[in-house]
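Justification of computing resources. Each target in the renewal requires a structure prediction run like the one illustrated here; the chain below, 252 residues long, is used simply to show the kind of job we budget for.
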Amino acid sequence: MKIESILEHSLALRRAENFKQAFDYVSENVDAHSPYVELIWQHNPIFWSDISAGACVLTRRNAGDHAFIREIFAVPGFGRSFHRNSNPLPDDTRLLQQILNEEMVTTLSESHALHWVIRDTSKKPWGVLSLCDVSLTHQRAEVLLGMMPNAPLGLTASAMLMLYEFYFKFMKFNKLISFVYKENPRSFKSTLHLGFAVEGELLAHNLDPETGKFLDVIQLGLNRSQAFSEANRRLSRRLLGGSRHETSRQPI
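Resulting C-alpha coordinates:
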Protein backbone atom coordinates (compact mmCIF):
# COMPACT_ATOMS: atom_id res chain seq x y z
CA MET A 1 0.00 0.00 0.00
CA LYS A 2 1.30 3.46 -0.91
CA ILE A 3 2.27 5.74 1.96
CA GLU A 4 -0.05 8.45 0.62
CA SER A 5 -3.05 6.13 1.00
CA ILE A 6 -1.98 5.11 4.49
CA LEU A 7 -1.67 8.75 5.60
CA GLU A 8 -4.98 9.69 4.00
CA HIS A 9 -6.80 6.96 5.92
CA SER A 10 -4.97 7.69 9.16
CA LEU A 11 -5.90 11.38 8.86
CA ALA A 12 -9.56 10.44 8.48
CA LEU A 13 -9.31 8.37 11.67
CA ARG A 14 -7.57 11.20 13.50
CA ARG A 15 -10.19 13.70 12.38
CA ALA A 16 -12.75 11.38 13.97
CA GLU A 17 -10.54 11.39 17.10
CA ASN A 18 -9.93 7.66 16.77
CA PHE A 19 -6.28 8.04 17.68
CA LYS A 20 -5.73 4.48 18.88
CA GLN A 21 -7.27 3.11 15.67
CA ALA A 22 -5.06 5.41 13.61
CA PHE A 23 -2.01 4.15 15.50
CA ASP A 24 -2.99 0.51 15.01
CA TYR A 25 -3.70 1.07 11.31
CA VAL A 26 -0.33 2.74 10.65
CA SER A 27 1.49 0.11 12.73
CA GLU A 28 -0.04 -2.66 10.65
CA ASN A 29 0.60 -1.05 7.27
CA VAL A 30 4.03 0.58 7.63
CA ASP A 31 6.87 -1.91 7.50
CA ALA A 32 9.28 -1.71 10.41
CA HIS A 33 12.19 -1.51 7.97
CA SER A 34 10.72 1.12 5.65
CA PRO A 35 11.94 4.75 5.55
CA TYR A 36 8.53 5.74 6.96
CA VAL A 37 8.80 3.76 10.19
CA GLU A 38 8.98 7.00 12.22
CA LEU A 39 5.34 7.59 11.30
CA ILE A 40 4.38 4.79 13.69
CA TRP A 41 5.90 6.69 16.61
CA GLN A 42 4.27 9.93 15.45
CA HIS A 43 0.86 8.22 15.68
CA ASN A 44 1.37 7.15 19.30
CA PRO A 45 -1.91 8.05 21.10
CA ILE A 46 0.13 9.63 23.89
CA PHE A 47 0.53 12.68 21.64
CA TRP A 48 -3.21 13.30 22.05
CA SER A 49 -3.52 12.29 25.69
CA ASP A 50 -3.86 14.61 28.68
CA ILE A 51 -0.68 15.12 30.70
CA SER A 52 -1.22 15.73 34.40
CA ALA A 53 0.86 16.10 37.54
CA GLY A 54 0.42 18.07 40.72
CA ALA A 55 -2.06 20.92 40.19
CA CYS A 56 -1.51 21.14 36.42
CA VAL A 57 -3.13 19.44 33.42
CA LEU A 58 -2.06 19.85 29.79
CA THR A 59 -4.70 19.07 27.17
CA ARG A 60 -4.28 19.20 23.41
CA ARG A 61 -5.75 22.42 22.06
CA ASN A 62 -8.83 21.82 19.92
CA ALA A 63 -12.08 23.35 18.62
CA GLY A 64 -13.64 23.21 22.07
CA ASP A 65 -11.07 25.75 23.27
CA HIS A 66 -12.11 28.47 20.83
CA ALA A 67 -13.75 30.68 23.48
CA PHE A 68 -10.70 30.53 25.74
CA ILE A 69 -8.34 31.24 22.83
CA ARG A 70 -10.34 34.37 22.04
CA GLU A 71 -10.37 35.34 25.72
CA ILE A 72 -6.64 35.01 26.26
CA PHE A 73 -5.68 36.71 22.99
CA ALA A 74 -8.01 39.58 23.91
CA VAL A 75 -5.94 40.30 27.03
CA PRO A 76 -4.07 43.55 26.34
CA GLY A 77 -0.49 42.79 25.31
CA PHE A 78 -0.91 39.00 25.30
CA GLY A 79 -0.49 38.47 21.57
CA ARG A 80 2.54 40.74 21.55
CA SER A 81 4.25 38.85 24.36
CA PHE A 82 3.26 35.34 23.21
CA HIS A 83 4.07 35.66 19.51
CA ARG A 84 3.97 39.16 18.11
CA ASN A 85 4.26 37.98 14.51
CA SER A 86 1.35 35.53 14.67
CA ASN A 87 -1.68 35.97 12.44
CA PRO A 88 -4.81 37.51 14.00
CA LEU A 89 -7.61 35.14 14.97
CA PRO A 90 -10.38 34.84 12.36
CA ASP A 91 -13.64 36.56 13.25
CA ASP A 92 -15.66 33.55 12.14
CA THR A 93 -16.02 31.09 15.05
CA ARG A 94 -16.48 28.06 12.81
CA LEU A 95 -13.29 28.88 10.94
CA LEU A 96 -11.38 29.24 14.21
CA GLN A 97 -12.74 25.90 15.40
CA GLN A 98 -11.71 24.30 12.11
CA ILE A 99 -8.18 25.70 12.42
CA LEU A 100 -7.84 24.50 16.01
CA ASN A 101 -9.05 21.00 15.16
CA GLU A 102 -6.79 20.68 12.12
CA GLU A 103 -3.84 21.70 14.29
CA MET A 104 -4.82 19.10 16.86
CA VAL A 105 -5.17 16.10 14.55
CA THR A 106 -1.92 16.57 12.60
CA THR A 107 1.25 14.60 13.23
CA LEU A 108 4.65 16.18 13.78
CA SER A 109 5.76 15.61 10.21
CA GLU A 110 2.60 17.34 8.96
CA SER A 111 2.53 20.45 11.15
CA HIS A 112 5.93 20.50 12.93
CA ALA A 113 4.06 21.73 16.01
CA LEU A 114 2.20 20.65 19.15
CA HIS A 115 -0.24 22.87 21.03
CA TRP A 116 -1.69 22.46 24.54
CA VAL A 117 -3.98 24.36 26.89
CA ILE A 118 -2.67 24.72 30.45
CA ARG A 119 -5.35 23.92 33.04
CA ASP A 120 -5.73 23.41 36.77
CA THR A 121 -7.12 20.16 38.18
CA SER A 122 -10.70 21.42 37.77
CA LYS A 123 -9.87 21.72 34.03
CA LYS A 124 -10.21 25.51 34.11
CA PRO A 125 -7.96 26.92 31.36
CA TRP A 126 -5.24 29.40 32.31
CA GLY A 127 -2.72 29.44 29.49
CA VAL A 128 -1.37 28.06 26.24
CA LEU A 129 1.80 26.09 25.55
CA SER A 130 3.25 25.29 22.14
CA LEU A 131 6.17 23.52 20.53
CA CYS A 132 6.87 25.15 17.16
CA ASP A 133 9.33 24.62 14.32
CA VAL A 134 9.77 21.03 15.47
CA SER A 135 12.73 19.47 13.67
CA LEU A 136 12.53 15.68 13.56
CA THR A 137 15.98 15.55 11.99
CA HIS A 138 17.76 17.68 14.58
CA GLN A 139 15.44 16.76 17.47
CA ARG A 140 14.82 20.32 18.59
CA ALA A 141 11.89 22.72 18.86
CA GLU A 142 11.01 26.23 19.98
CA VAL A 143 8.77 26.58 23.04
CA LEU A 144 6.12 29.29 23.45
CA LEU A 145 4.12 29.81 26.64
CA GLY A 146 1.53 32.41 27.61
CA MET A 147 -0.66 32.71 30.70
CA MET A 148 -3.64 34.72 31.89
CA PRO A 149 -2.51 37.55 34.22
CA ASN A 150 -4.33 36.03 37.21
CA ALA A 151 -3.09 32.45 36.71
CA PRO A 152 -2.48 30.46 39.92
CA LEU A 153 0.99 30.73 41.38
CA GLY A 154 3.28 27.93 40.22
CA LEU A 155 1.15 26.85 37.26
CA THR A 156 3.58 28.29 34.68
CA ALA A 157 6.57 26.47 36.16
CA SER A 158 4.52 23.28 36.54
CA ALA A 159 3.57 23.33 32.86
CA MET A 160 7.18 23.77 31.77
CA LEU A 161 8.46 21.01 34.05
CA MET A 162 5.79 18.66 32.68
CA LEU A 163 6.82 19.60 29.17
CA TYR A 164 10.42 18.66 30.02
CA GLU A 165 9.26 15.19 31.05
CA PHE A 166 7.26 14.71 27.84
CA TYR A 167 9.83 16.27 25.52
CA PHE A 168 13.05 14.74 26.81
CA LYS A 169 11.81 11.38 28.15
CA PHE A 170 8.99 10.38 25.79
CA MET A 171 9.91 12.27 22.61
CA LYS A 172 13.62 11.84 23.47
CA PHE A 173 14.49 15.10 21.75
CA ASN A 174 17.85 16.75 22.22
CA LYS A 175 17.24 20.47 22.67
CA LEU A 176 14.57 23.03 23.47
CA ILE A 177 14.92 26.63 22.27
CA SER A 178 13.37 29.88 23.47
CA PHE A 179 13.65 33.28 21.81
CA VAL A 180 13.14 36.27 24.11
CA TYR A 181 13.06 39.89 23.04
CA LYS A 182 15.73 41.93 24.77
CA GLU A 183 13.06 44.42 25.82
CA ASN A 184 11.30 41.72 27.89
CA PRO A 185 13.45 41.24 31.03
CA ARG A 186 10.67 39.50 32.97
CA SER A 187 10.37 36.69 30.42
CA PHE A 188 14.16 36.47 30.19
CA LYS A 189 14.50 36.05 33.96
CA SER A 190 11.80 33.38 34.22
CA THR A 191 13.31 31.44 31.30
CA LEU A 192 16.71 31.40 32.99
CA HIS A 193 15.07 30.32 36.24
CA LEU A 194 13.80 27.13 34.57
CA GLY A 195 17.25 26.05 33.41
CA PHE A 196 17.71 27.68 30.01
CA ALA A 197 21.12 29.14 29.18
CA VAL A 198 21.90 32.10 26.94
CA GLU A 199 23.37 30.97 23.62
CA GLY A 200 23.63 34.28 21.86
CA GLU A 201 22.13 37.62 20.96
CA LEU A 202 20.62 38.18 17.53
CA LEU A 203 20.84 41.86 16.65
CA ALA A 204 17.98 43.52 14.73
CA HIS A 205 16.65 40.02 14.14
CA ASN A 206 12.85 40.35 14.06
CA LEU A 207 10.62 43.05 12.59
CA ASP A 208 8.06 44.40 15.07
CA PRO A 209 4.80 44.71 13.09
CA GLU A 210 3.53 47.46 15.41
CA THR A 211 6.53 49.78 15.42
CA GLY A 212 8.18 48.81 12.14
CA LYS A 213 11.50 48.50 13.96
CA PHE A 214 13.90 45.56 13.96
CA LEU A 215 14.40 44.22 17.47
CA ASP A 216 17.21 42.36 19.19
CA VAL A 217 16.41 38.80 20.27
CA ILE A 218 18.16 36.63 22.87
CA GLN A 219 18.37 32.93 22.01
CA LEU A 220 18.30 30.52 24.94
CA GLY A 221 18.71 26.76 24.86
CA LEU A 222 18.01 23.84 27.15
CA ASN A 223 19.26 20.25 26.92
CA ARG A 224 18.32 17.19 28.97
CA SER A 225 20.89 17.71 31.73
CA GLN A 226 19.82 21.34 32.16
CA ALA A 227 16.13 20.37 32.16
CA PHE A 228 16.69 17.86 34.98
CA SER A 229 19.16 19.88 37.00
CA GLU A 230 19.06 19.51 40.77
CA ALA A 231 17.29 22.86 41.07
CA ASN A 232 14.57 21.76 38.64
CA ARG A 233 14.28 18.39 40.37
CA ARG A 234 13.63 20.14 43.69
CA LEU A 235 11.08 22.43 42.04
CA SER A 236 9.42 19.45 40.38
CA ARG A 237 9.11 17.56 43.67
CA ARG A 238 7.53 20.62 45.27
CA LEU A 239 5.10 21.43 42.46
CA LEU A 240 4.38 18.07 40.84
CA GLY A 241 5.03 15.51 43.55
CA GLY A 242 7.25 12.46 43.40
CA SER A 243 5.36 10.29 40.91
CA ARG A 244 6.53 10.45 37.30
CA HIS A 245 5.19 8.81 34.17
CA GLU A 246 7.85 7.87 31.65
CA THR A 247 7.15 6.45 28.20
CA SER A 248 9.54 4.94 25.69
CA ARG A 249 9.83 6.48 22.27
CA GLN A 250 9.40 3.01 20.82
CA PRO A 251 5.89 2.36 19.44
CA ILE A 252 3.52 0.89 22.02
